[in-house]
Amino acid sequence: MARFDIKRVADFALDRADEVLAHWAPDGSYQGAEYIALNPIRSDSSKGSFSVNRNTGAWADFAADEKGGDLVSLVAYLEGVNNGEAAQRLAAFLGLSEGESIPPSPTYKSKPKKPAGNSWEAVFPVPLEAEQSCPTTHPHNGKPSKVWEYRGQCGSLLMKVMRFDIQKDGTRSKDYRPLTYCRDSNSRNSWRWKQPLKSRPLYKLDLLAKRSKASVLLAEGEKAADAAADLLPDYVCMTWPGGSKALGKADFKPLHGKEVILWPDNDAAGKECMLKLAAILQAMECKVSVVCLESLGPKWPAKGDAADVEAAGITREHLATLITEGKFLTPYQSVVTEHQAQNKGGSNKGPKSGQFIVNDRGVFFPVQGAEDEPSLMRICDRLDVLALTRDPKGRNWGTLVRFLDPDGIVKEWNIPSEYLATEGGAEVLKQLYSMGLRAEAGQQPRRRIVQYLQTAKSPNRYVLVNKLGWHGNAYLLPNETLGTPVEPLYFYSTSPDLNKIKFSGELQQWREHVACYCKNNTRLLFAVSAAFAGPLLNLIGMETTGFHFFGDSSQGKTTLLKVAASVYGGPDFVRTWRSTDNALESIAASHSDGLLILDEISQCDPRIVGDIAYMLGNGTGKARANDRGGVRGNAFEWRLVFLSTGERTLDQQMAEAGKKAKAGQEVRLLAIPSDTGSGAGIFDELHGFAGGAALSRYMVDKAALFHGVALYTFIRKLCASNLEKLASQIRRELVNFAAELSDDVSGQVRRAAEKFALVGFAGELASTAGITDWPKGMAMEAAKSCFSAWVSARGGVGNLEDRQTLSAVRLFFDLYGESHFTRWDREDFTADDHTVRTLKRCGYRKTLQDSNALEGQACSETVYYVYPVTFKAEVCKGLSDRKAKQLLAACGALERDGNGKFSIPTRLPNSGRNPERVLIIRPHLIPVEDDEEKGLLKKKAA
User: Fold this and answer.
1) Which of 240, 326, 676, 713 lies 20 to 30 Å from 60 when distance is taken between CA atoms?
2) In CATH terms, are 6-94 and 205-342 the same topology?
3) Would you state the pLDDT for residue 781?
């Protein structure tokens, strides 16, 4: 391989600087001799921190505190290579060969132009159809000698890294190239030989998901990670793409709270890299240890990593001995202390005036010390600025910060920018101190904290949202966004662990050990299908939907919930009704476009359970003052499917507090009997198990082992599909379902039927996608079965309010027919003088004998003459008296006059000769259940 004089290449490149800059830092502009551009290896959204001098080649990246004196060092920085390699790449670009004299500078007057399609971003995960078109060779390097696949927690491909062993002119070198599937600003998709600009995934996320309780070992580079995995099989050995200079671009959130071991390369740069990484992990509540390189012995090579263990004569058994004896690892803090001692507290570079310095020891502000020597004033513990935020409307800007409280617990707060403009930022300081930030005493440090927050810059921009689920065509999960959002999203919650979505095991394992045993079991099929229905609500604009399984204890109701929960996560995905209504708002928002599970309705206060059911179904919480930097002024919003259980229905639970469920509450929480009538509780078929209890235990145990992957796969397939076409398909299915209903079915039942139909469709969609492996049509039949059971449990297909009104009127006459109505059995217009005096009289009652009764079968009826005012105030208390009159007249229990009026002029006892208008009611004609005999489905033609 040709070798070049670095200075000669730098001088030659300077004469053609415009070409070089347009190629390596495109889309820039000149301010005098300074070329200002976005740093192409960072996800900057604004220019200013990265510049190159056109006349000298000197460059600086102020955000990363990196700089250089010529264009060769610039290329080395941007390409992540040494200066020698950078000179070769630069010479190749300029067409300069070894030994060639430097030609005169070309005339090049035009400024760099923005290349077409320069704006691009990675697509995670890679769509299934795109995997087939993934390049297997590099256009210049040929076939790779090694390929590392980065896969997501559910095994889906995210990106690749390829190694190329290059032989040229008798010299052997290696080149690493990332390969990412991207979408440009024109929505064109293609594979690119580039790293993702941001949120780069970790290597071996799929293994981490399978072994969620194992400790993690991080090494620098895929080769080192694979070598460490062979040596230490008890650990999940991982790395990140891009090496030490790309720490800030990697997404380490999947390691939150885990025990992590760092294996540094045996050089200063490797150790410095792991120190920075340790700080990142500690902020994520990780327990961090570092491999003690001295324990590997004197033969451990310089720059050595895990891939050099065999060459150093170290065996797996030797490492196991070191671990057993406690010599292999050293606590992170002791490494930090040693590093600080070696560097005497930090870099020997003096701080620049006006710049804050942030490290593990805190936030510092440069000041002038004695004899104008620069020194640092500590103002507070480490306080990291993660991003600048704004709401979806571009308002309510804020600064997202993170720090550790005195107990080492990670705290995050999105500080509204307006707080910094009032009372010198006193409200900000008050809240930070309350959350546990420790600051130096005195006015000066407090002022500097506010100044630090006001002047802090971050290349990261997030749209602040207070709900998970769909945002445009992107689906936001707690730690990942599937699909492509218009802008990066950040789910902000004061309780980030509200959503328990977790991944464990493979989809095939969940399918074989959980979904398989739902077959031919209508309640299980329906519950699992309901879990898939949550993400479909938004596509057709359907409201939040709830289903409540009720019945005696030990029928398997909680099993239903845990099996349904396994679509999303483990057993802790199941919550209880014990949560307060205020807490449920944030919980519901964190389950938006998904599934919320609430077990045992009896644990909820009967006085508020109806309000909670209504609030959940309404999809909107109360607007509250926001002091934690959420989306200010916006109430929580959600759209979800929620499942509930209990021995009582919602109406029965409310009755304990003297309340009655309204139709709006009932249709938001549809009560389905959990007992299928087969004698095995929730089960129709036991699949060879000895009983329902045995099958229940098996399914619960397996759901705890294999979960979450079904949801991930389902959402991924939704994001890859035509959502508008899918929405049309759903609507057609709902219409087809409704077409089977008889004409007697009320509007309320039809509204409920749509919800059952959506659940059935969701189950069918999951089956078609290969997620559940259920036979075609089985999920929809289960939905129809549960719909019929719901109709039977509610008493028929009629309107609930109508039934409740008629029942209330009939109950009034049953309870107070004798005490509130004076007996009037005489032929004249006087009341019976021998009866007990009537208190709170509502009218009169007369017993009539049926003259058409058969001989020996005397029959009578009691007719009530009710004052209109008392009918409204007493009989229909809490009801619509007009509606009650219409319903009574419709069933023949209320007489009308010749003009169709409900009240009829009648001469009443002791009321003189002038008749009074009264309602003449025959309560025995009021049906107890007016629709039990009405059919649910249309009769099929013979």
Assistant:
1) 240
2) no
3) 96
Strands of the sheet containing 362-368, edge to edge, are 357-359, 362-368, 374-380
* Closest CA relative to residue 476, chosen from 360, 392, 358, 370: 392
**Can you tell me the distance from the alpha carbon of 716 to that of 507, in angstroms, rounded to the nearest whole number?**
13
Upper half-sphere CA count for residue 450 (Cβ side, 13 Å): 18
Q: What is the DSSP letter of 873?
A: I
What pLDDT was estimated at residue 368? 64
Distance CA 666, CA 867 (A): 33
Question: Which of 292-296, 631-635, 736-740 has maximum average pLDDT?
Answer: 736-740
Task: Return the pLDDT at 347.
Answer: 40
Which two tokens mark 551? 């019945």
How does pLDDT run across 535-581, given as a tens digit for each residue? 999 999 999 999 999 998 888 999 999 999 999 999 999 998 886 55
SS3 of 601-658: HHHCCCCCHHHHHHHHHHCECCCCCCCCCCCCCCCCECCCEEEEEECCCHHHHHHCCC
Which of 221, 251, 246, 219 shows the shortest CA–CA distance to 235?
Answer: 219
> H helices within 154-221, ranges in order?
205-210
Mean pLDDT along residues 339-367:
60
Alpha helices, H only, 250-405: 268-282, 316-324, 332-342
Short-list 290, 331, 293, CA closest to 314: 293
Closest CA to 278 of 413, 185, 382: 382
* Domain spans, the chain: 6-94, 120-192, 205-342, 357-387+400-459, 507-793, 800-925
759: part of which helix (H) or strand (E)? helix 747-768
Q: Which fold has domain 205-342?
A: Dna Topoisomerase Vi A Subunit; Chain: A, domain 2 (3.40.1360)
User: Quick one: residue 359, left, alpha or beta (phi over 0 = left, psi -120 to 50 = alpha)?
Assistant: beta
Within 10 angstroms of residue 320's Cβ, the number of other Cβ atoms is 14
| Mean pLDDT of the 124-149 span | 88
Q: How many residues does this entry show for the chain?
A: 942
- The predicted-structure confidence for 30-88, as pLDDT tens digits, reads as follows 776 778 888 877 656 566 678 888 878 888 876 666 888 899 899 888 887 788 888 88
Which amino acid type is present at position 357? I
Say if residue 398's pLDDT is above 50.
yes
DSSP for residue 674: S
For residues 821 and 731, what is the distance between their CA atoms, to the nearest angstrom? Answer: 54
Element (H, E) at 845: strand 843-849
Q: What single-letter amino acid sits at 360?
A: D
- Pair 715, 582: CB distance under 8 Å: no
Class of 507-793 in CATH: alpha beta
